[in-house]
Amino acid sequence: MKSLSLPRLTCLTNLASLQWFKYLSVFSLVALLSGCAGVGVRADAAHNQARAHTELAARYYQVGQVAVAVQEAQIALASDANYVPAQTLLALIYAELRQNKLADAHFERALKLSAAQNVSSTDLRNSYAWYLCQSERVEQGLQELSAVLNDPLYGSLDKALVNASVCAARANKFEMAKAYVNAALDMRPNFPVAVLYRAHIELSTNQLKQARADAQLAQKLLGDTPEVLWLMTRLERASVNGMANASVRLQKNFPTSTEASWLRAERWQWF
Q1: List of residues 6+ apart from 23 with CB closer than 8 A
Q2: CATH no. of 12-120
């Protein structure tokens, strides 16, 4: 196997990109592996081997080598089938790949193991809720997010509030969605992904002036990313001033992005 220089796995403190599910996925893994979620450490060799392979799997996942990540995570589970981070990583990978049966199985296994081992599962539930919302199980996702938001010890409420906002918007509960995203921004002003999603909500509810202001702020915070240009393209389509050529820049600069494929298919969704 070709050698690969892998990034160190550390606790994330800001949004490096707007691949939101991938960000949440890595955040959950980091919390479990680094001790951010308070995971206890056993001293036996099988556990240590499982941890080492899961850390390696997570690093491969971060750099897009998904097949190798799956292989390493499976090796981890062969060492210790009850190792929660390995179960979690496979759930997150299969969720991103839209292999829902496998994702469901590993999420459920990880949650059961977390409860049995008395390990905090709030980060895991946050990612699980997002996955449920993205796989059209919105009400179940909102129920999971309610439990996350009611955890007084959870240190990532801003992310959970953004998840709840998008999940509510998927159910056309736009007032609820706006309340959640505003709460996230009250907690963390200029949180880039919250600004971006609030602009989409505002556009969906025909609040074009507010959407334009948030789009401009999102661009200031993030620059021309596919996600920002997609927002601006939607605003351009709604004839909002100041968004000209966003669609051209999206196609030219990010032709292989998901957002560019939506544009070519005239698929005007935002999540």
Answers
A1: 12, 15, 16, 17, 193
A2: 1.25.40.10
The structure's pTM equals 0.78
**Closest C-alpha among 84, 133, 89, 75 to residue 109:** 84
Mean pLDDT by 10 residues, the chain (271 residues): 38 33 52 46 77 92 91 96 93 91 96 88 88 91 93 89 92 94 96 95 94 95 93 89 86 93 87 64
Question: CA–CA separation, 259 vs 25, rounded Å?
Answer: 20
Separation of first and last alpha carbons in the chain? 36
Q: What's the token pair of residue 253?
A: 């600069």
- Cα separation, 241 vs 209, in Å, equals 10
- Give the tokens for residue 95: 């969720």
For residue 252, give both structure tokens.
């030219």
Rounded CA gap, 137 and 54, in Å? Answer: 29
Question: From CA 103, how far away is CA 109, in angstroms rounded?
Answer: 10
The distance of Cα 80 from the centroid of its chain, to the nearest Å, equals: 27
**Beta carbons within 8 Å of 177's beta carbon, 6+ residues apart:** 165, 166, 168, 169, 201
> Helices 122-134 and 84-96 meet at what angle, rounded to 10?
20
Measured from the Cβ of residue 115, the count of other Cβ atoms closer than 10 Å reads 10
How long, in residues, is the chain? 271
Helix (H, G, I), strand (E, B) or coil at 36: coil
DSSP H/E element including 118: none
